[in-house]
Design a protein that fits this description.
Helix content is about 35%, strand content about 15%. It is of the alpha/beta class. α1 runs parallel beside α3, α8 packs parallel to α27 and α14 runs parallel beside α20. Bound molecules: ligand MGD (2 copies) and molybdenum atom.
């Protein structure tokens, strides 16, 4: 029964363990799953396939979190999607089922080919599958007519082989999940400090005096991050949150492995300050902090008091200070206040905490990166850090907290539609073929190309492209336009059902499973958000004898398409050390790769900016002087004179992993048994003449005249700033216009969608009685 009841327990305490236990008990393999979990993070253990947060360094400690346990358990389900399953259900029938139902059917056991005549998936041999892909690829007029998507769970070894194959085939069309995720962090930081990755390591969190957590919900998405946050507060450091929602994990915290805390059922407040900005208002808030610091510094100078800014650092290491200070001076306080959604008193308080702290770490995630002006916002965070030299010192730095467990590693391996020249040169030199130099497609550009019929083959290394991407109706049609769609996957999802004229499902081993190749048991490597690379060994028996590893599937396709060029693909896959030896030759930082990963805990890739080596155009760390956006609403909305009712952000519930829904509950937000809900402020609900509990439709305000609408969502009165709404992804992806993306990033603006909210026409009366407390 669906209901809504605010959650009062602490985050990650008893509630977490109860939920995990229930999850395990619901799985036939509960015992072996637990055993697999217990080996997590030990030598030759498994890298958690959940998020990209770093593994805790202490050796021998068993560290896991509720949502990591869910991720393992989800993969290690007892349920199977067999050829008999596909014989039973036609594709049309399967399309009627929910995403939740589809993934709950279990792991796919056989390679399958879609037969349009019967509307069923049918078995196919691996070789037939490889030959089908090769036939389609080789008959294209240009290699740029194929799109090669990657989701961030792929291992380094698989990703490296994949990019080598695709480049040897002739294109840089590498749309990936990163395009929808931390793209702005990479672009913004690269221009400013010369590296696109976080500059801190796990150890830095123990030394910080203040940790800012901006636009991130770690209690759900990076639960192990709550531990260093809580420890920081315990030793007197500040944790400062910027989030319009009062996320439970950030309010209070109890660690499941600290029995004492659980016995007393008390939880420590992790946040010393919690600010609730407007959606997209963070750049203004941080500009305001910088403006205060600059003002205080000038006052201090006049009075002969100690400086507030780190002038020595600025002189020695940065470029562009004058322009940036001028930009600060030109930014009026009124704009800062109105755009940030915060009072100047709040911003001043944030600035005081910041200015008093000797060492500051700034963390952020999707609340920052999924806006139009995400690159300038990331750069404003960098600017602030440069003002006080908070980069490249112990306990200080930048921490864009990555999403998928190996999304960062995939980029390092060259999954990049805009590859740097040095990488292409290195590949060309090592493998002796002419690499494609033209930039390829991002995710949004790939959809556009498929929509227009310019791209004809879609290939997915993991992920659930049609549900993760914006403008659902159009992205589905784009997929249907293709001649061939191919998905390398573990579980059934909608991307298998929204097919091109031909379609293949290629089932692969998950990270929890043992991967045997000719030379024996293989491990794969991943890179976490702190640039630590380590090896992971599957622990469980492969789910079906027919499953192949991602690397071996890619090798099979590459061989069928290109023959033994530029490498002997199958020989490489016999022993992953051979792939790692190639990586060692091509990718900087991986010299001696196979030996280095023998070291328990793996090895640190290093970070030039953290060493104060600035690989930028100026050879210094750049202050980038971006003006605040004139208005947060895009022209497509304002120029038409349209007024949206609310601005919607789309986010994750506690029981989902991106498009994978574990259950219909969102415990920390008090929602049970339903996901088609929209949170809004009581005052807005009144203003719009609506009622708590009522069914509503949401309609996007955008200029192109296309109707973008989702219907029959339950409207919930929630503690959310006025003018804002929040709802779950992927259900609300139909509302995100394909053309609404970030400047320079092409990242869909999933955290800023202008909408109208109206009462649903159908069953309106019945809806009012929806079960809400
Ligand atoms: N269990 C679990 N773990 C995951 C995932 C998962 O789905 N489930 N997904 C993984 C992936 S791929 C990623 S990228 C990460 C995502 O991790 P998060 O970025 O934490 O994910 P979201 O749910 O999108 O949450 C965004 C947060 O930002 C806030 N927010 C939204 N807009 C704004 C804004 O304009 N300003 C500010 N200051 N805050 C804002 C929201 O209220 C919310 O708390 O998690 C990874 N880990
Ligand atoms: N509206 C809105 N849209 C968003 C976001 C948002 O916040 N709001 N977030 C964006 C973000 S941050 C991201 S990262 C993307 C995520 O986009 P994706 O990475 O494409 O989506 P996932 O849901 O993580 O993919 C799940 C599927 O991956 C497959 N899979 C799982 N494990 C493995 C494995 O080990 N190997 C292989 N080959 N396949 C596997 C399973 O079949 C599963 O169904 O979505 C983006 N879309
Ligand atoms: Mo992500």
């Amino acid at each position: 029964m669906s209901h809504y009841k605010p959650y009062n327990g602490p985050a990650a305490g008893w509630g977490a363990l109860i939920s995990v236990t229930r999850n395990w008990l619901g799985s036939k393999n509960a015992i072996s799953n637990i055993r697999a979990m217990l080996k997590t993070n030990q030598d030759h253990g498994l890298d958690c396939p959940g998020c990209a947060w770093g593994e805790t360094p202490e050796k021998g400690m068993i560290k896991f979190c509720e949502n990591g346990a869910k991720a393992v358990n989800w993969e290690a389900t007892g349920r199977k999607v067999t050829p008999a399953f596909f014989a039973k259900y036609s594709n049309t029938e399967l399309l009627k089922e929910s995403d939740f139902w589809l993934e709950s059917q279990g792991r796919i056991t056989h390679p399958m080919r879609y037969n349009a005549d019967t509307d069923h998936y049918e078995t196919i041999t691996w070789q037939e599958a490889f030959d089908t892909v090769a036939k389609h690829l080789n008959q294209l007029d240009s290699p740029h007519q194929a799109e090669f998507y990657t989701s961030g769970r792929a291992s380094n070894e698989a990703a490296f082989l994949y990019q080598l194959f695709v480049r040897a085939f002739g294109t840089n069309n590498f749309p990936d999940c990163s395009n929808m995720c931390h793209e702005a962090s990479g672009i913004g930081m690269s221009e400013a400090i010369g590296v696109g990755k976080g500059t801190v390591t796990f150890e830095d969190f123990a030394e910080a005096d203040a940790i800012f957590v901006i636009g991130q919900n770690p209690g759900t998405n990076h639960p192990r991050m709550l531990e260093p946050l809580s420890e920081a507060v315990k030793r007197g450091a500040h944790v400062v949150c910027f989030n319009p929602l009062k996320e439970r994990g950030l309010e209070r915290f109890q660690h499941p492995q600290s029995p004492l805390e659980m016995l007393t059922n008390e939880s420590e407040p992790t946040n010393s300050a919690y600010f609730r900005p407007a959606l997209g208002g963070d750049m203004a808030a941080i500009r305001g902090m910088a403006k205060f610091l600059l003002q205080w510094d000038r006052e201090a100078q006049q009075k002969g008091k100690p400086a507030v800014l780190d002038h020595e650092f600025i002189q020695q290491h940065t470029h562009g200070m004058d322009d940036y200070f001028a930009e600060i001076d030109n930014t009026p306080w009124e704009l800062i206040e109105s755009q940030s959604g915060l009072s100047l008193a709040e911003i001043e308080m944030a600035a005081r905490i910041y200015g008093k702290a000797e060492r500051v770490i700034m963390c952020w995630a999707m609340g920052i990166t999924q806006h139009v002006h995400s690159v300038p916002t990331v750069q404003e965070i960098v600017n602030l850090q440069l003002l006080r030299g908070n980069i490249g010192r112990p306990g200080a730095g930048l921490s864009p907290v990555r999403g998928h467990s190996n999304v960062q590693g995939d980029r390092t391996m060259g999954i990049d539609e805009q590859p740097p020249e040095w990488l292409l040169d290195a590949i060309e030199k090592r493998f002796d073929f002419k690499v494609p130099r033209d930039h390829g497609h991002t995710t949004v550009q790939a959809i556009d190309a498929m929509e227009k019929g310019q791209a004809k083959v879609f290939f997915g290394l993991g992920g659930n492209f049609v549900q993760a991407t914006p403008d659902t109706e159009r992205s589905h049609q784009a997929m249907r336009n293709c001649d061939l769609t191919v998905q390398i996957s573990t579980k059934l999802n909608r991307s298998h059902l929204v097919t091109g004229k031909e379609a293949l499902i290629l089932p692969c081993l998950g990270r929890t499973e043992k991967d045997f190749q000719k030379s024996g048991l293989q491990g794969v490597t991943v890179e976490d958000t702190f640039s630590m690379v380590h090896i992971s060994y599957g622990q469980l028996k492969p789910f079906s004898p027919l499953l192949r590893s991602e690397a071996s599937i890619i090798a099979g396709i590459a061989k069928a398409t290109l023959g033994n060029k530029p490498v002997d693909w199958e020989w490489l896959v016999e022993d992953y050390d051979r792939i790692r030896d190639l990586i060692a030759e091509v990718i900087p930082g991986f010299e001696g790769f196979s030996e280095k990963i023998q070291h328990p805990g793996g090895f640190y890739l290093g970070n030039a900016a953290a060493e104060h080596q600035w690989n930028t155009s100026t050879g210094k760390a750049n202050f980038v002087a971006n003006p605040l956006p004139k208005t947060l609403l895009q022209d497509q909305v304002t120029m038409k004179g349209q007024t949206p009712d609310l601005i919607l952000q789309t986010m994750r519930s506690h029981d989902q992993y991106n498009t994978t829904v574990y259950s219909m509950n969102d415990r920390y937000r008090g929602v049970y048994g339903m996901r088609d809900v929209v949170f809004a402020n009581e005052a807005d609900i009144k203003r719009l003449g609506l009622e708590h509990g009522q069914k509503v439709d949401m309609i996007t305000v955008w200029e192109d005249g296309k109707e973008r609408k989702v219907s029959n969502f339950t409207l919930l009165s929630y503690d959310i700033p006025q003018g804002q709404a929040a709802a779950y992804y992927p259900e609300t992806n139909p509302l995100v216009p394909l053309e609404s993306y970030g400047d320079k990033t092409f990242t869909p603006t999933s955290k800023f969608i202008a909408i109208k909210v109206v009462a649903s026409a159908a069953n309106a009366n019945e809806a009012v009685t929806a079960s809400v407390a």
